[in-house]
Structure formats: structure tokens, C-alpha cells
Design a protein that fits this description.
The chain is α/β, with parallel strands linked by helices and 260 residues long. The chain is 34% helix and 20% strand. It has one domain (10-241, 248-254): Spore Coat Polysaccharide Biosynthesis Protein SpsA, Chain A, CATH 3.90.550. It is built from 9 helices and 8 strands. Strands 3-2-1-4-6-5-7-8 form an 8-stranded mixed sheet, with helices on both faces. Helix 3 links the parallel strand 2 (42-50) and strand 3. The longest helix has 18 residues, at 139-156.
Length: 260
């Protein structure tokens, strides 16, 4: 049998912002389904954005032979800005997830499939629509997320089910449209991305994901960061993209499941 080489491979770039995640980052990197990704015709690049960690996060990441960037200004928004600027023109799809082992890297293809099929331009991994494992999210945080998601659906007219998730996927063009408008330096970045993608008219789909207890201590302050997230929601109620961006029709779908 003659084997024909795949000349149409696409590239997925995974961005993982990290601040003192030495406990979880090794397992996160090891759990990416490298063989499955390659079998589906994709090349995978994993990029760790070390947000000025004081522990061994960067060293452990380098030991796993992945790209490590350094962002000296603390804050998840700053780290993601560094990652966004690093994306090469050979990238087709961009994935973002946290380095604390709360999200499953082996669910990556579930987020990529709707993009690759042309169903949408952005995929949001929904914890509230998926499986939240015991001990991974407090009732207070779950209630806050539920309230924020309902507010976004009502005021921004976008049918998302988890506006505070840390698991996203974009086609590169959608991310390039979003990137100039991101201003958040901290944990409000997820809220800002969702509401501005809605205003930009991106086609957004939600897919169910699994959420596990984090490895190590949380850096999120429910009250302080919750207030900043609410302010991000409120201050952008009248936000519109700059005039040179052509308006497009919003089409948002909630997807029950995409199986690998």
C-alpha cells in the first residue's frame, strides 16, 4: 500500500498563562493528546507564558520541551496579551487554558472540531454546561458565574453558558479581530473577551467540558476579582468596535457535544 503524505496539516497553538503553577503544569503538558492530534492532521505547539513566577514553573515547563515566554507584569490579562502577540502566521487555531490542572487537555479536540468544520469562529468550553467535579468550584463561585452568564446573555444578546471559563478556542482570524480591543490586565479578561466578541459579531459556540479541583492554591479573590469582573461587564455595555470593522451578523449556538 502506498502512503500519501498529508500536505494540508493545520497548526494549533496552545497558550497557557501561569503564575506559580509548579504543582500542576507538568501534568497539564503531559496530558495533551499528542498522538490523537497528529492523527487528525494537526501540528501542536504548546506555549507557556510564565507570569513572573517565583517557583519552578518555567523550569518544569522547559524540561517538557515546550516554548516558554516570560511576562514580567503580573496579571492574567498581561500574560495572555504576551501570548497573543507571540502567535505566528502559520497558526490556524489558538487554544487557551489554565496551567492549574483544572481543565483537561485531552478535551482539546472537542473545542477544535466546531472551528475546523466551519460551524463557528470561537468556541467556549462550558463548565456549567458540562461536568464540575466535587471540590472544584464553590457554591458561591458557581452562583456568581451563573448570574454573570445570565447578565451577559440578556444585555449582550449572546447565548453563552459560562462567561468565566478559562478554556477558549479561536480560529486565528477571530483572535486577530479581538486582540486590538483587549485592555484587561487581570482576571476580568474572560468577561472582556466574551462581551467584545459578541459586539464584534463572532460566531460563538459553547461545548461542555470537565472541570477538576485545581492543583495548588488559587490566586483568584472571589470578592475583589468578582467586583472587577462586574465592572468590566458594566463599563462595556455601550462599547462598539471601531468603525473600520465591518459589522457581521451574530450567530451563537450552544452545542450539546462534539465527540472525539
Amino acid at each position: 500500500m502506498v502512503k500519501i503524505a498529508n500536505t494540508n496539516r493545520k497548526k494549533i497553538t496552545v497558550l497557557i498563562p501561569c503564575y506559580n503553577e509548579e504543582i500542576g503544569i507538568g501534568s497539564v503538558i503531559k496530558n495533551f493528546p499528542i498522538n490523537q492530534v497528529r492523527a487528525r492532521g494537526y501540528d501542536l505547539e504548546i506555549v507557556i507564558i510564565d507570569n513572573n513566577s517565583s517557583d519552578a514553573t518555567a523550569r518544569i515547563a522547559r524540561e517538557h520541551n515546550v516554548t516558554v515566554l516570560h511576562e514580567p507584569n503580573k496579571g492574567k490579562g498581561n500574560a495572555m496579551g504576551c501570548g497573543f502577540r507571540s502567535i505566528g502566521q502559520d497558526t490556524d487555531y489558538v487554544v487557551m487554558l489554565d496551567g492549574d490542572a483544572t481543565y483537561r487537555p485531552d478535551e482539546l479536540l472537542r473545542l477544535i472540531e466546531p472551528l475546523d468544520s466551519g460551524f463557528c469562529t470561537v468556541v467556549i468550553g462550558s463548565r456549567l454546561g458540562g461536568r464540575i467535579m466535587d471540590g472544584s468550584m464553590s457554591q458561591f463561585n458557581r452562583l456568581g458565574n451563573w448570574i454573570y452568564s445570565h447578565l451577559v446573555r440578556y444585555f449582550y444578546h449572546v447565548n453563552v453558558t459560562d462567561v468565566l471559563t478559562g478554556y477558549f478556542a479561536w480560529n486565528r482570524e477571530a483572535l486577530e479581530r479581538l486582540r486590538p480591543h483587549i485592555t484587561s490586565t487581570g482576571f476580568a479578561i474572560e468577561m472582556e473577551m466574551v462581551i467584545k466578541m459578541a459586539r464584534l459579531g463572532e460566531e460563538i459556540a459553547c461545548v461542555p467540558i470537565t472541570y477538576h479541583p485545581r492543583a495548588g492554591e488559587t490566586k483568584l479573590s472571589p470578592v475583589y476579582d468578582g467586583a472587577r469582573i462586574l465592572w468590566m461587564f458594566a463599563k462595556n455595555l455601550r462599547w462598539q468596535p471601531s468603525p473600520q470593522l465591518a459589522p457581521v451578523r451574530v450567530r451563537v449556538e450552544a452545542v450539546s457535544a462534539f465527540l472525539e
